[in-house]
């Protein structure tokens, strides 16, 4: 019989974490609460002078999640505060013990009045024969004073080892809810669903047609960018306008005009022309649409670096994120 421990039993659960930010003068944003348990790890560097937001790194021990791991992170971005969530590299999903053993992550975020969240992680990297599921829920107010910039993307695996979508299963869901009421530490009430975005990738030998790699049609990375709120309104408009200017099927290709006939391009047109050439070279496809006050950008590319280069170019060109949150918010796009 083992001796009784003199310490009380732990109240926290494995893989659970909490982040709570607030505005406490004279600092613009203060980290009021930061807790985590294995296998989740959270690190927040001390803010430097003139920092525009609190930065928290979402980490895992060993750089990834093993079969059966489960994490659950609850985040409250207090009224008028700003939070940046980033990673130090791709989140690796290791091989599953069997198809029924799932690795999972759950993120629940409440963004209060005039607050802002930038969540720009590196892509999830599912290894061959891995099973993974994630759910990310974001609750905001009805007046669009709560601001969201959320990136969710997944790569084909360890290309250096020849993996191309060799996973067994990958399921991702992003939801944006309009909260009935918001306040420090309060719940979201019943709310109203504004956006639900589901991505389901199923591997081979489970009744699907063809291989997953074949169905991805040459794409090595696939992702979603979600924007909402007054702070990101110009960024959302920028994506929508640039999408509307993409060449359409059947339209004339003006890039092959004779030099004598071609009109001089402005600086913006030169940038757009060069960017579209890189998109074709990187096999990058993308679309943008406005949905119930949110702007959803879908993109895919042959390689992660091509998608990273395109997304970084777009976000830096418009400049809202870097101006309002600092260059550390764009670590995943360097």
Brief account:
By secondary structure, the protein is an alpha/beta fold. Helices cover 16% and strands 37% of the residues.
Q: In terms of per-residue confidence, which ranges show pLDDT below 50 for 5 or more consecutive residues?
A: 182-189
Q: Radius of gyration in whole Å, from Cα?
A: 21 Å
Helices and strands, in N-to-C order? Answer: EEEEEEEEEEEEEEEHEHHEEHH
Strand content: 35-45%
The largest sheet has its strands arranged as: 3-4-7-10-13-16-18-17
Average pLDDT: 89
The amount of helix comes to 10-25%
Q: Helix segment count?
A: 5
The tally of beta strands, per DSSP, is: 18
Describe the largest sheet: 8 strands, mixed
Shape: globular
Provide a descriptive summary of the structure in words.
16% of the residues lie in helices and 37% in strands. It is an alpha/beta fold. Strands 3-4-7-10-13-16-18-17 form an eight-stranded mixed sheet. A hairpin with a 7-residue loop joins strand 1 (16-22) and strand 2 (30-36). The chain is globular and about 90 Å long.
Annotate the secondary structure layout.
Blueprint: E1 16-22, E2 30-36, E3 40-43, E4 54-60, E5 64-65, E6 70-77, E7 82-86, E8 91-93, E9 103-111, E10 116-119, E11 124-126, E12 131-140, E13 147-155, E14 169-178, E15 192-202, H1 212-215, E16 221-228, H2 233-244, H3 267-281, E17 285-291, E18 294-301, H4 304-318, H5 320-325
Parallel strand pairs: 1-6, 4-7, 5-8, 6-9, 7-10, 8-11, 9-12, 10-13, 12-14
Antiparallel strand pairs: 1-2, 3-4, 13-16, 14-15, 16-18, 17-18
């Amino acid at each position: 019989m083992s001796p009784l421990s003199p310490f009380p039993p732990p109240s926290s659960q494995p893989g659970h974490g909490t982040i709570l930010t607030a505005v406490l003068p004279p600092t613009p944003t203060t980290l009021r609460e930061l807790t985590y348990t294995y296998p989740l790890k959270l690190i927040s560097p001390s803010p430097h002078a003139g920092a525009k937001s609190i930065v928290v790194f979402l980490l895992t021990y060993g750089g990834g999640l093993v079969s059966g791991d489960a994490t659950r992170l609850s985040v409250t971005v207090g009224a008028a505060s700003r939070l940046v969530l980033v990673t130090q590299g791709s989140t690796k999903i290791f091989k599953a013990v069997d198809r029924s053993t799932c690795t999972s992550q759950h993120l629940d975020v409440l963004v209060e009045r005039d607050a802002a969240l930038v969540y720009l992680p590196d892509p999830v990297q599912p290894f061959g024969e891995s099973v993974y599921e994630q759910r990310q829920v974001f609750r905001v107010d009805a007046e669009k004073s709560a601001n969201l910039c959320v990136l969710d993307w997944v790569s084909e695996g360890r290309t250096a080892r020849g993996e191309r979508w060799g996973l067994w299963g990958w399921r991702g869901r992003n939801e944006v809810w309009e909260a009935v009421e918001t306040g420090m530490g309060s719940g979201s009430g019943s709310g109203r669903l504004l956006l639900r975005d589901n991505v389901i990738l199923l591997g081979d030998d489970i009744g699907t047609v063809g291989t997953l790699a074949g169905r991805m049609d040459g794409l090595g990375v696939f992702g979603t960018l979600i924007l909402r709120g007054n702070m990101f309104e110009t960024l959302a408009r920028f994506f929508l306008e640039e999408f509307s200017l993409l060449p359409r099927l059947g339209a004339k290709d003006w890039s092959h005009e004779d030099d004598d006939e071609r009109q001089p391009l402005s600086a913006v047109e030169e940038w757009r022309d060069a960017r579209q050439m890189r998109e074709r070279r990187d096999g990058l496809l993308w679309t943008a649409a406005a949905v119930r006050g949110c702007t959803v950008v879908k993109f895919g590319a042959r390689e992660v670096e091509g998608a990273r280069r395109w997304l970084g170019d777009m976000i830096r060109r418009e400049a809202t994120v870097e101006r309002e949150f600092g260059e550390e918010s764009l670590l995943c796009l360097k």
